[in-house]
Amino acid sequence: MRPTPANYIHANTSSPDSNIKRNAYYRIDIPEELAVDRIIYLDADLICERSLEALESISLGQHPIGAVEDQGYVHRLQEMGISNLPGAYFNSGVLVIDVARWNKLRISERTRSLANLQPEMLKYQDQDALNAVLKGDWQHLDPCYNVQTPLITAKVSHNPIEKRQLAENQALQSPTLIHFNRFDKPWIIRNDHLHPWRAAYYYYHERMINKLAAAI
What we know:
The structure is a single chain. The strands form 2 sheets. A 4-stranded mixed beta sheet has the order 1-4-3-5. It has helices at residues 30-33, 76-79, 99-104, 107-117, 125-134, 149-153, 162-173, 198-215; strands spanning 38-42, 46-48, 65-69, 90-98, 139-140, 147-148, 177-179. The protein starts with 29 loop residues before the first helix and ends with a helix. The protein is globular, with a radius of gyration of 17 Å. By secondary structure, the chain is an alpha/beta fold. The chain has 8 helices and 7 strands.
C-alpha cells in the first residue's frame, strides 16, 4: 500500500500538543514498500554529529524496532488505556526497523487502522499509534541516538529515574543525533528565547549552504 493521504484520511492532524501533519504518518507505511532487511528512519528536524554505522547491525533482539524513550517521560500507555503498568514510551523520530519482523506482525496495517478508527485517542498522532500497537515490544537504544529537546532544555514532564541519569548525561556530552522536536526549534525566536543548541543547528546549516553554492 503506497503512502498517500487516503491511507490516513481520518487520522488526527490537529492536536494542540503537536504540530504533526498528515504526511508524518507515512513513516508507518515505509517497511511495506522497501525490499530491504533493515530501515533507519530519521525525522527531518535532526542533525547528525557522529556515524550511524553501528545502527546498521545493532541487536534488536526479537523486537521489530529499536528506538529511544521519549525524553518528556510521558505516561502515554497508561493515559491511552493501553496498559496499567508504567511502561516506557518511545519517540518515533528515530526508528531502527527490522523489516521482516515488522511485516510479520502487520505493524503498518494495525497502526493505520488505529490511526483512522480512534483518532481522538492519539494526542501525539503517529507516535501514539505506534506505541499503542507495539505495547512495549521495542528495543531500547542508547539515548545518544535521539537527544531530544526536553532533555536538552531540562524541561521534562517527569523526572528521569536514577538509572537513566548517567546514560543521558553522557548522551548530552556526546550526542550522535540531536532532535529538535516539539515546538522549540533553533530557527525560531520567541520572546527573545533561543534554543540552547541553536549554534549546532546553524553550523550544519551554513555548511549545507556553502556546499550548494559551490555546486552551482
